[in-house]
Prior knowledge:
The chain has helices at 9-18, 63-76, 94-97, 124-142, 151-156, 160-174, 189-198, 242-250, 273-284, 291-314, 320-341, and strands at 27-31, 39-45, 48-54, 87-91, 101-105, 207-209, 218-220, 227-230, 237-239. It is an alpha+beta fold. The strands form three sheets. It has a five-stranded antiparallel β-sheet with strand order 1-2-3-5-4. β1 (27-31) and β2 (39-45) form a beta hairpin. α4 (124-142) crosses α9 (273-284) and α6 (160-174) packs parallel to α10. The longest helix is centred in the C-terminal third of the chain and has 24 residues, at 291-314.
Amino acid sequence: xxxxxxxxxxxxxxxxxxxxxxxxxxxxxxxxxxxxxxxxxxxxxxxxxxxxxxxxxxxxxxxxxxxxxxxxxxxxxxxxxxxxxxxxxxxxxxxxxxxxxxxxxxxxxxxxxxxxxxxxxxxxxxxxxxxxxxxxxxxxxxxxxxxxxxxxxxxxxxxxxxxxxxxxxxxxxxxxxxxxxxxxxxxxxxxxxxxxxxxxxxxxxxxxxxxxxxxxxxxxxxxxxxxxxxxxxxxxxxxxxxxxxxxxxxxxxxxxxxxxxxxxxxxxxxxxxxxxxxxxxxxxxxxxxxxxxxxxxxxxxxxxxxxxxxxxxxxxxxxxxxxxxxxxxxxxxxxxxxxxxxx
Length: 343
């Protein structure tokens, strides 16, 4: 699995044998596509389907720790009501593949950003239930005791809510290190940051957060509207789970749009914001009286993350068209935030 081969079958077979993952030859090796920078490889062994997840071929400095953190979180979710792919085995020995990787069970389902099959595509009741199922999964995560990640991770979350604006503002400022970026030409970024600092909730409760919860990171069952698995846990940590609901609603498809927004096709029967919030409150038992703050934070945070792609595009490090598109999405998120800020 070194150099340009993301999965050396001979090396992988030996490692799988050692960890008791299936038996016999490794077959049907397919690299899965998607928006993640990490690599996903599906394969079959002993009549079962698995997925190997590893960093990109050219690792980032934190790639191995990201894999470790994601594997720890998946292990911690075992036995919970959160739909997820079951962790099978983790490799932390860099001599095996030059990186940390893990194997999980394959999940049969579809991601609505890539496809929406029948009967979901033409059944309003299924579409409505899909939206509520996404909230059910987020609420289930909020009910998991965050201590499952260990006392160290739990202690690190102290002051999480106080650090958010400064943490993301520093990330935005760090883009000045990229040659060619003209600076944060984003209307409302300063106004939104000030509002977040001035209206920070007085109380919050620690919990597990996914960190990037939206349609692209959820797989639905093909035989029902239920979520089959929440995927891409690399940003998972301990914080306030209301951020996940904020992120979901910040990226929720706008029913007034005539075009498909982030989905494989338009879904006209998804629940509206008020119903989603009420559903989450009922399922999680959390106080949502300050929820607007979390949606504004999600908009602010995601806008800054996306502006990073624009900054890298300005520096010639990624596709210019993608950079321009993400800059536009970042501005739209800040426009959304200002509607709450000014209400």
